[in-house]
Amino acid sequence: MQQQVLPFSLRMSAFALSRLGRPFPGLTARVIYSMYSTPPKRKLRSTQLAVRDTALVEKASVSRYPFDERPLRLMLYRWGSSGKKVLLLHGWGGSPFDFKQMIHALVAAGYEVITFDAPAHGASQGKQTNLVQWMHVLEQLLERSGEVHGVIGHSMGGLNAALTLVHKPVQVPRLVMVSAAVSAPVVFNETFQMFRIPPQVMPRLRQLISERLQSDLLQLDLFRHIDRIKAGRILVAYDENDHLVKQEQIDTFLQQYPSIQSLKIKGEGHFRIMRNEAVISRVLAFLEQ
Predict the structure, then answer these.
(1) Sheet holding 261-265, edge to edge
(2) pLDDT tens per residue, range 148-187
(3) CA-angle at 45, arms to 32 and 3, nearest 5°
(4) For residue 10, what pLDDT is reported?
(5) How many domains does the chain have?
(6) Which residues of the chain have pLDDT under 50?
(7) In a domain? residue 21
(8) Are 280 and 105 in contact (CB under 8 A)?
(9) What is residue 11's predicted lDDT score, i.e. its pLDDT?
(10) Please, are residues 270 and 211 in contact by the beta-carbon 8 Å criterion?
(11) What gap in Å lies between CA 77 and CA 53, rounded to an integer?
(12) Quick one: signal sequence residues (predicted)?
C-alpha cells in the first residue's frame, strides 16, 4: 500500500479512516488493526500447483502464541533429502510456491528445502494473523527442524525471520532477506501519512497491539535491534524499483549494519526479484560461503 496511485477501494478506505480518526480514534485503531491482520486471499497459478505437487506434504500442529496454547494447524512442504536444510518463508499474502525457481535451484544444489503456508495463508489454519504470531510459529518450527543451514525470507517473511532471531532463543548460520521490510512501525507510519489518519490514533493502535498480542509495536522494528540478529552471516537482496519496500529504507538499514552483505538490482520489483537469476546465484553462493 505504498504506491502513490491507490485503487478506488483504498482511496475510499483512506477517506473514511481520515474522517473517523479524530472523533473516534479507538474505533479507527481497531479498523486498522483488522486490516493489517487479514491477509488477502489468492489463487495459485498452474506453475505453482505443479511445484506443490512435487512436494512431500505434511501437517504440523503448533501453539498459537506464547500466551495461547491452543493448537494451530500448519501445512508444511519438503523437497529433497539432505543434511543441509534450508527454510523458506513467504511474505504477507504470499505462498511458498512463489519461491518455485529458488526451490528448484536449492534442490539441484543438494539442499533439503522446507517451507510452509503461514497462519491464515494457503492450507494452514486461521483467518487473521500477525508478525507476533509468525515469530512464535517460526521459533517452534526451528526448534523442531533440528540444525538448519539457512533461512530465506521474502518481504514480511524476511522481517519475520530477522525479528525471530532477535527476540527468540534460536539462531541460524545464514539468513537471507529478499525485498524484506525492516520495520513494522515504519509500515504503519507510512499508512498513516498516506491515509491522512490523525496522529492521536497511533497511541490507541499501540495500546491495542499491547493488549491483544502482549507486545510493543516498537519491538517489531529492526532499527532498534540492528546488532542482535543471531545469524552467522546475513545477505539482503533488494530492487531499486520496489514500490512496496522503499530502497531508501534498506540503504539506511545497511549503512547502520555494514557487516551485512547485500545485492541491489534494478528492474524486477518486489515479486519478480525472487526468480531473478543473479539473485538466485548470489543466494546459492552465500549459502556455501
Answers:
(1) 56-65, 68-79, 112-116, 85-89, 150-154, 172-178, 231-239, 261-265
(2) 999 999 999 999 999 999 999 999 999 999 999 999 999 8
(3) 35
(4) 58
(5) 2
(6) 1-6
(7) yes
(8) yes
(9) 63
(10) no
(11) 10
(12) none
Please give the pLDDT value at position 2. 38
Looking at the structure, do residues 158 and 109 belong to the same domain, yes or no?
A: yes
What are 206's three cell numbers? 499501540
**All 3 cell numbers of residue 41?**
486471499
Same domain, 145 and 169: yes
Find, among 202, 61, 66, 204, the residue nearest to 135 by Cα: 66
Q: What phi and psi values does residue 20 have, to the nearest 5 degrees? A: -75, -30
Which domain, by its residues, includes 9? 1-35+188-220
Q: Is the pTM of this model over 0.85?
A: yes
d(CA 124, CA 74): 4
Is residue 50 a part of any domain in this protein?
no
C-alpha cell at 15: 477517506
Predicted pLDDT at 260:
96
Q: Residue 36 — φ and ψ, nearest 5°?
A: -85, 0
Classify strands 172-178 and 112-116 as parallel, antiparallel or unpaired: unpaired
Helices (H), the chain: 8-20, 25-35, 46-53, 100-108, 131-145, 156-167, 184-195, 201-213, 247-256, 269-272, 277-288
161 and 99: one domain? yes
Confidence (pLDDT) at 88? 98
Q: Report the amino acid identity of residue 7.
A: P
Quick one: 162 and 199 in the same domain?
no
* Position 4 in a domain: yes
8-state DSSP, 45: P
Do 29 and 140 belong to one domain?
Answer: no
Contact assessment for residue 95 and residue 42, using Cβ atoms and an 8 Å cutoff: yes
Say if residue 254 is in the same domain as residue 193. Answer: no
Residue that the C-alpha cell 543451514 belongs to: 149
Confidence (pLDDT) at 289: 87
